[in-house]
Amino acid sequence: MAHSANIQKSLVMKPEVKRIFDDLDEFLDFCRFELLPYNPANLYNRDSYEWNRFYGATRSKWARAERAKKESERKGEDRKPSSYNRNRTSK
After folding, report:
1. Measuring CA to CA, how many Å separate 68 from each of 16, 62, 65?
2. Which domain holds residue 46?
3. Cα(22)–Cα(7) distance, integer angstroms
4. Number of domains in the chain
5. Would you say residue 7 lies in a domain?
6. Given a cut of 80, is residue 80 above it in pLDDT?
7. How far apart are CA 67 and CA 74, in angstroms?
8. Is 86 inside any structural domain?
9. Res 33: pLDDT
């Protein structure tokens, strides 16, 4: 059965919603591996012990991703890698 164009457009998940579901999946995996109680209501709850442990463990990964995103927007996608390491001679 074919769906109309309006239905297909409405089934596409917005990036903000997709990120929330991805964060929920990561939070679930973290709680499983760390043997912590999983409660989806604790996602983004700064008063939650579980969320603080999860955020502390993944903060650097998110910070790197956000920094790389901002840097690529600022410099453009066609940014060339630094030549610092290529021109450096080993001793």
Report:
1. 18, 10, 5
2. 12-74
3. 23
4. 1
5. no
6. no
7. 10
8. no
9. 93
What is the Cα–Cα distance from 88 to 91, expressed in whole angstroms?
10
- Top pLDDT among 14 and 62 is at 14
Residue 4 lies in a domain: no
Neighbours of 63 (CB within 10 A): 10
Amino acid letter, 12: V
Chain position carrying tokens 């990036």: 15
> What confidence score (pLDDT) does residue 26 get?
93
CA dihedral 25, 26, 29, 30 (to 10 degrees): -150
pLDDT digits (tens, 9 = 90+) for 4-53: 666 666 667 788 899 999 999 999 999 999 999 999 999 999 999 999 89
**In terms of pTM, does the model score above 0.90?**
no
Residue 83 belongs to some domain of the structure: no
Handedness of CA 73, 68, 71, 84 (dihedral sign): negative
